[in-house]
TrEMBL record:
One of its GO terms (biological process) is tetrahydrofolate metabolic process. This is Sarcosine oxidase subunit delta. NCBIfam families: soxD. One of its GO terms (molecular function) is sarcosine oxidase activity. Signal peptide: none annotated. InterPro entries: SoxD, SoxD_sf.
C-alpha cells in the first residue's frame, strides 16, 4: 500500500483515500467552444504515457476533498513530491536524487520472458 502526502492536511495517508485526476499543468482553453474538433480531441483524449517521472493531479476524496499535484515515478510508483494546486511545477532534481536510482523490472527480475 502506498502512503501519499496531502499538502493541505499535511499528513501521509493511505492511497485508498485518494483518486488520480489525470495530468497536471495542462494548458486548458479559456473558450472551449472556439477550438477545433482536432484540438479538442488532442486535449481531451491524447496523453503521453512516459516511463519515469510524471506530474499528475490527485484528489484527497476521503479527506479534505481538495485537488493537489504530485511528481511520481511511474516505474517505482514512488511519489517524489506533492504540492498544492495552483503552485508552479517544482524543481525536483534534489528531491528525485534522494530516492536513488530508478529500478526497472529488468534490473530486478532479469529480462522479461
Amino acid at each position: 500500500m502506498l502512503l501519499i502526502y496531502c499538502p493541505y492536511c499535511q499528513e501521509e495517508r493511505s492511497e485508498l483515500e485518494f483518486r488520480g485526476a489525470g495530468d497536471a499543468h495542462i494548458a486548458r482553453s479559456a473558450d472551449i467552444a472556439s477550438i477545433s474538433d482536432e484540438e479538442f480531441e488532442s486535449y481531451f483524449f491524447i496523453r503521453d504515457n512516459p516511463k519515469g517521472l510524471i506530474f499528475e493531479r490527485w484528489r484527497h476524496i476521503h479527506g479534505c476533498g481538495r485537488f493537489f499535484n504530485a511528481a511520481r515515478d511511474t516505474v517505482t510508483d514512488k511519489f517524489i513530491v506533492t504540492y498544492k494546486a495552483g503552485e508552479p511545477k517544482p524543481e525536483i532534481g534534489a528531491a528525485a536524487a534522494q530516492h536513488g536510482p530508478v529500478e526497472t523490472y529488468e534490473a530486478v527480475e532479469g529480462e522479461a520472458q
